[in-house]
Amino acid sequence: MVDTADAFGIGLDRPGTTSLRTAFFAVWFVDLVATVGFFTVPYAYELNPVTVFLHDLFGLAGVVLAAVIYAGAVIAIGYVLSRPFDVGFVVAIVCCYALFASNNVVLLVSREPLLTPLMP
Questions:
Q1: Is residue 82 part of a domain?
Q2: pTM
Q3: pLDDT tens digits along 40-82
Q4: Which ranges constitute the DSSP H helices of 39-84?
Q5: Which of 34, 68, 70, 85 could be a cystine partner for 81, CB 3.0 to 4.6 Å?
Q6: Is 120 inside any structural domain?
Q7: Is residue 75 part of a domain?
Q8: Which residues cross the membrane (predicted)?
Q9: Domain range holding 26?
């Protein structure tokens, strides 16, 4: 892929293909929109304590800040890992985001989660 050099002269290799990175940002954005929705409807709530903490501090901007922090962490980790681990990592994150975003959208639309809780 494309090697880039940062300010310190360290060569970084973008993880995966352009389509994989696009898929990551697409499902990340859907998850972000659904998470913002959790704070605007009375029947759903966010479980992530970092997102809840930032929401309490900054309102909906805190939810967006949390999502940007998570995306930044994924991107940074993907850049640091060597091949093929970087591609595998990004693929795993895309799958997780797709699962979580699907569940969140279904929950917001139907008021029933796609994934039923494992606890009684």
A1: yes
A2: 0.74
A3: 888 877 878 888 899 999 999 999 999 999 988 888 888 887 7
A4: 49-58, 60-80
A5: 85
A6: no
A7: yes
A8: 23-45, 57-81, 87-109
A9: 16-110
